[in-house]
Amino acid sequence: MNVTDNGSPAQGPGRAVVLTTDDLMPGDTIEAFYRGTLVHRGPVTDIAPNHGLFWILDQLTGGRRLLDIVEFQIVRGGTPDTSPDVLVPVAAGQVMPGAA
Description:
Elements: E1 3-4, E2 16-18, E3 29-34, E4 37-48, E5 53-57, E6 64-68, E7 73-76
Antiparallel strand pairs: 1-2, 2-7, 3-4, 3-7, 4-5, 5-6
């Protein structure tokens, strides 16, 4: 299993940074960070392992999202923190990978 703890948002019991789609399974709850900001959270629904892509049902936006494992820091496991200070909104007009 290719996971690491690098002192990032992954810290916490049962949480790990995911480096490849081989470490994901449908039903895994993940959080996706872009430059240290939480931008997507939800369960994995489908995986395209040969392409490094996977889909989640995003609990922050309410939509289905296709994510690229290379574009985000993906954190799996643990109990997601839903406190308002953790759910940082994206600035208006800011473009992020996977946010189509």
